[in-house]
Amino acid sequence: MNQPSDFLIIAAVLISIGIYGIVVKRNALRLIISIELIANAVNLVIVAFSRMLPNPQGQVFVLFSIAISAAEVAVGLGIMIIAYRFYKDIDVTEYKNLKN
Amino acid sequence: MVDIFSTPSLVTIVLGTVALLIPVIDALNKEKSSKNKVYSGIAFGSLVLALVIVIARIVSGETLPALSLSSDGVITDDVFGGFFSIAFLIVSIMVTVSSWSYMKNKSNHAAYYSLILLSSIGMILIGYSTDFVMLLVSWELMSIPTYALAAFSKKDPISNESAVKYFLFGALSTSIIILAMGIVYGLTGTTNIYDSIVALSELKTELIPFGLLAVGLFVAGFGFKMGLVPFHMWLPDTYSGAPTTVGTLLAAGTKKAGFAAAIRVIVIGLIALNVQWAFVLAIIAIFTMTIGNLGALTQRSVPRILAYSSVAQAGYILIGLAVAPFAAQGIDASLFHVMNHAVMKSGAFIAAAAVIVVISGYTLDKYKGLGYRMPITAIVMTISLLALAGIPPLNGFWSKLLLFGSAIDSGQLIWWGPYLAIAGILNSALSLGYYALIIRKMYLDEGENRVRQKEPKSLVAVLIFALGFMVIFGIWYGPILDFASMASPGDLTQLVPVR
Are B470 and B383 in contact (CB under 8 A)? Predict the structure, then answer.
C-alpha cells in the first residue's frame, strides 16, 4: 500500500463517490460535501504525482489549492445560510423562481 | 522574477490598495449616512488610474510584444495581457459608474465596490499568467468575489437562487481545472505553462491520450465560465437573477477571462498534442451558437434573452480559437470580437439595468413604448442589439466578418473550416429574430403611456460612452483591429513545437 498507483486508485474512488453525490443528492450541503470530496481527491492526485516524479512543486500547488478551496467553501456556506432563511430548507429542487 | 514595475504588479498594487481601503474607510466612518457616491468615485478613480497605467506601458513599448511564453517567473508583462486588461477595465469602469445609480437604495456599498475591484484584479492577472499555480490563484480571485456579488441582494430570493447555482457549478469547475492541471503536472513534471507544453510536444505516444484528457478537462473547466454548451445550464439563471450590474460584470468580464485562459492553455496545448482535435472545439462552437440562439427565442425576460445571446456570442468567439492553428488571423479575430463584445454586451445589460431602476420591470411587456418613455436607454439598447447581431456600420460587424473570414481561410487546410463560417452566418440571421423583437416592442408597440421618465445621470453617461464606442469604432475600426493583431501571437505554430 505504498505505491503511487495506490494513491491514484484511492483518488479515483473518491472522485467517483463525489460525482455520484453530485448526480444523485439534492441537499445543497451534500452537494458542497461532494464537491469538496472531488477537490480533495484531486489534491491527492497531485501529491501522488509529486512523490512519483519526485518534484516538490506539486506540494506547493496543493497548499495553494487547499487554502483557495477553504475560502471558496466559506463563501458558499454563507450563500446557503441566506438560502435557508428564505426557504427553511436547503433542497435545491425548491429553487425554481428563475424558471419563468 | 516578478518585477515591481511591470504592468500586472502596478495594477494589482493600485486596485488592491483601494479594494482594501474602502472597507476600512467604511469601518472608521461614524456617520450612518450612505457613502455610495464616495466609494463609487474612489473605485472609479482607481480603475481609471489602472487603465492609464496599462495603456501607458503599452504605448511606451516597455511591455513584451504579443503573447510571450517564457519559463521564467509566474507572470509576464506582454501586450496580450494588456489587451485583455483594457477590455476588463472598461467593463469594470462601466459597472462601477452605473452602480452609482443602481445601488442607491441598497446597503453594504463598501463591500460591493471592494468585491468588484478584487474580481477585476483576478481577471487582469489571468491574462498575464504563465504558470498554472498563478492561473489557479487568479482564477479563484476572479470567481470568489463574484459568488458573493451574485447573492448581493440579500432580501431577494431570486438573487440568492442565482448565486446558489453559480456557486455549485463554479466550485465544481474549479475542481475540474485543478484536476487538469494535476494531470499535466504529472505528465510533464512542471507547473510552468510553456515548459509543460514543450514537454507535452515530446510526450511518448502511449501517453498522448492522457494529455488530451487534460485538455478536455481544461475545456470543461474553463467552459463553465465561458458558457460553452453543454456547460451553460447555470448561465441564463445566474446572469438574469443576479443584480443586473453584476450580471454585466459576469457576461462581459469573467466570460472573457475564460477565453484569455483558454488561449493561453487550450489552443497552444492542442497544437503541442494533436492539432486535429481542434475539430472538437469546432463542434462545441456550432452547438454553443445554435443552442444559445434557440434558447433566446423563447424567453420573455430581457436579461434572460441577453444571457442566452451571450452564450451564442461565446460560440462566435470560439470559432476563432478552433481555426487558430490553421488560419493566421484566427486569434486576431477572436481578440477583436472579445473587445467589441465586452462593450456591446455591457451596453445592452446596463440599458436593461436602467429600465429596472426607472420603471422596475424586466419583462418584454414592460419594454412596450420604451422609445417614448426612456429615449436614451432605448436608442442605446437598439444600437447594442444591432451591433450584437452584426449590422454593418457597427463594430460587431467587423469582428464577425474577420471571424467568418478566418474560418473560410482555414478551409485550405481543413475541410470543416468553411462550415463554421456558414453556421455562424446562419446563426447571426437567427439571432436577429429576438433582437428585432425587443426593438419592435420598444418603438412600434404602444405602451402604458408616453410620459418621458427621468433617466439617472450616471447610467446615461455609461450608455452614451457605449454608444460612442460602438458607432465610432464601427466606422473607424482600424485602431482596435491593429491592437488586436498586435496582441495576437499570429502564427501559433511558430510559438511551440508542432507534433
Answer: yes
Which of A5, A20, A46, A66 is best to mutate for the B interface (most B CBs within 10 A)?
Answer: A46
pLDDT band at A98 (very low <50, low <70, confident <90, very high): low
Residue B386 lies in a domain: yes
CB contact under 8 A, A32 and B185: no
User: Does a structural domain hold residue A35?
Assistant: yes
In this prediction the pTM is 0.94
Contacts of B419 (CB under 8 A, 6+ apart): B282, B286
Could you tell me the three cell numbers for B489? Answer: 501571437
Q: Is B157 on the interface with A (CB under 8 A)?
A: yes
> CB of B278 within 8 A of CB of B325?
yes
| Model confidence band, residue B32 (pLDDT cutoffs 50, 70, 90) | low
* Residue B396 falls inside a structural domain: yes
Residue B489: give the domain boundaries: 275-499
Of A89-93, B150-154, B197-201, the poorest mean pLDDT is in A89-93
pLDDT above 70: residue A22? yes
- On whether residue A19 sits in a domain, the answer given is yes
With 90 as the cut, is the pLDDT of residue B176 above it? yes
Mean pLDDT score of chain B, rounded to an integer?
90
Q: Provide the number of structural domains found in chain B.
A: 1
Q: For residue A78, give its domain range.
A: 4-94
State how far the Cα of B13 lies from the Cα of B21, in Å rounded to an integer.
12
Within an 8 Å CB–CB cutoff, is residue B163 touching chain A?
yes
Q: Which residues pair with B129 in a beta bridge?
A: B75
Digit-coded pLDDT (tens) for B355-365: 999 988 888 88
Is residue A99 a part of any domain in this protein? no
Q: What is the pLDDT of residues B65-76, one digit of tens each?
A: 777 777 778 888
Tell me how close the Cα of A97 comes to any Cα of chain B, in angstroms. Answer: 6
- Window 55-74 of B, Cβ < 8 Å to A: none
CB contact under 8 A, A35 and B137: no
- Residue A86: which CATH number? 1.10.287.3510
> Considering its fold, how many domains does chain A have in total?
1
Looking at this predicted complex, what is its ipTM?
0.95
What span, in angstroms and rounded, lies between the C-alpha atoms of B39 and B316?
37
Amino acid at position B389, single letter? A
Contact B189 A55 (CB under 8 A): yes
Decide if B148 and A75 are in contact by the 8 Å CB cutoff.
Answer: yes
Residue written as grid cell 460612452: B465
Residue of A nearest to B157 (CA): A86
Q: What one-character DSSP code corresponds to residue B105?
A: T
- Round to whole Å and give the CA distance between A68 and B235: 23
